[in-house]
């Protein structure tokens, strides 16, 4: 699954530089995650780095975008092949 940033986000700026796929960017009010680029850090790290650094724990899995490990790895391969 792609991750999402909830409205509990405090715009602390720590998640954006941690994303190896550049999936996180500043939105109108809070940071947002591009689900087409989010691989939950599969292919880069064992755990999503944004979740590790978030001080308010506002980056859960997006229940509307179910993806298994193989699908996330395929997305990683597609993103990094460019």
UniProtKB/TrEMBL annotation:
NCBIfam families: di_4Fe-4S_YfhL (NF033683). Keywords: 4Fe-4S, Electron transport, Iron, Iron-sulfur, Metal-binding, Repeat, Transport. InterPro entries: 4Fe4S_Fe-S-bd, 4Fe4S_Fe_S_CS, PSI_iron-sulfur_center, YfhL-like. PROSITE patterns: 4FE4S_FER_1, 4FE4S_FER_2. The keyword 4Fe-4S applies. Gene3D superfamilies: 3.30.70.20. This is YfhL family 4Fe-4S dicluster ferredoxin. GO terms for cellular component: cytoplasm. Residues 1-29, 31-64 form the 4Fe-4S ferredoxin-type domain. Coiled coil: none annotated. SUPFAM superfamilies: 4Fe-4S ferredoxins (SSF54862). GO terms for molecular function: 4 iron, 4 sulfur cluster binding; metal ion binding.
